[in-house]
Structures are given as C-alpha cells and as structure tokens.
Fold this protein.
Amino acid sequence: MNKINVKLLWIAAFISLACTFLFYQYLNSLEKADEAKRYTTVVIAKENIKPNSKITKNMIEEKKIAIDNTTLNINIKTGDIVGKYVKDTILKGENIRTERLVDENDKSLAMKIPENKRAVSILVDEYMAVGDMIEPGNYVDVYVNLDEKTIENMAGKVYYTNQTKILLQNIQVLSISKNQIDEDKDREKVPNKYSITLAATAFDTEKLIYAENYGTIKLALRPINDNGVQTAYGINEDNLRN
C-alpha cells in the first residue's frame, strides 16, 4: 500500500469519526430539547400565604415539574409574581397561578381592608373633609360635635351639654366616591355630598355610625408616618370660656 492510499485511509477514518461525533451531538441535542419540552418551570409557596398578602421572594421558590394536562399552560417565573397580592389562601408547596394574584391597582375594596377592620362609609362635604384634599391611603382623626340633649328615664331627667370631642384617631381612608378635581373652574362638578370609606374596628364602626346619625362629623388629616394617639377630653362652651 503506497503512502497516498494510507493518507487517504487516515483522512477517511478521521472524517468518519468526526461525522459520528457530530451525529452523536445532534442526537444528544434533540434529546435535551425533547426533555426541555417535557418540563416547565413553576413557582411554589414555601409557606402558607394568607389572602391579601404581598408576595415576596422569601415566600416562594421555583421548581421544574413534568408537563401534564394540569400544567400544560404554566410557565411562571419569580419575577412574574413578586409584589403582587394573593386573592385567597395558598398552601405550602402549592403551585402559584397568576389568576390567583392581583396587582396593587387592581385590588378590590375587600382586599384593601386591614385585618380585623371593617369598611364603613360616611357622608361628607368639602368643609367636613379638609377642603376635598383627603385621598385614599391617608389617615384621619374623626371629631364629633354633639348638641345639648335632655333624656328622661325612671330616675328623672339627664342633661347632656353640647360638646365637641375627638371620636377616633389614626383611621385609614380606603376609598372616596368621587374623583379629585383641583381646577377652580371644575369645582362645580364636585358633588356637594360624597362618601368617604374608612377602615375601623367593629367597635369603632358602631361609634362612627352613631356619631353620624346623632351628631356632626368632621375629619382632620394626619401627617404622613404619624401614628401617635393623643389624649383629649372634649370641649364645650364652659371649657372654651375658662
């Protein structure tokens, strides 16, 4: 066998090995692609998540699972859900689907109510509500003005003097039934009366409803980040003159 034939034989062997290697790589890539198609990424809860909770990275983790009829359309990443709010309870280890979450701006009123609070609306006007400057998310103090009153019972007559007092403090404003209008030319479009919805405990809700029905309510806007509660004893004409 001459040198040319030997060289051609080596070249053919090399080409054969190269083709075999490339074909193997091709089959391997097809297998990996097929495997990738059989799995999808889901986000699961690392703990029980209560309704109205804001999702943080510490609450969740990503996991690859095999695709079946129940996971066919799921492909969620952590960034898709962090910062959103939970509609209902999500249990530890449960897949988190986007339809069970809402954005901050899409939260219903029921989801905005803090735990152990109730949403209660009162009717106000421009002067009762700090010149229409109160906005959802603000905190207010509620004052009530009660006229003098005489009540008769079995023991006789009980006289209550007129009084203005602070009724509730640090109450969150959940919503307002009108759009804020700043331009003076549009002031006539603001309704004379509108409702402001507050978040209050069941006990405070009773006081608020009673005060609205039997007295006159006025709201005072609180500064941002002021959570303090002050002691006040109310004032009447005698106190004011002394």
Summary: The two ends are 129 Å apart (CA to CA). The first strand starts at residue 39 and ends at 45. Residues 109-241 form one domain. The chain has five helices and eleven strands.
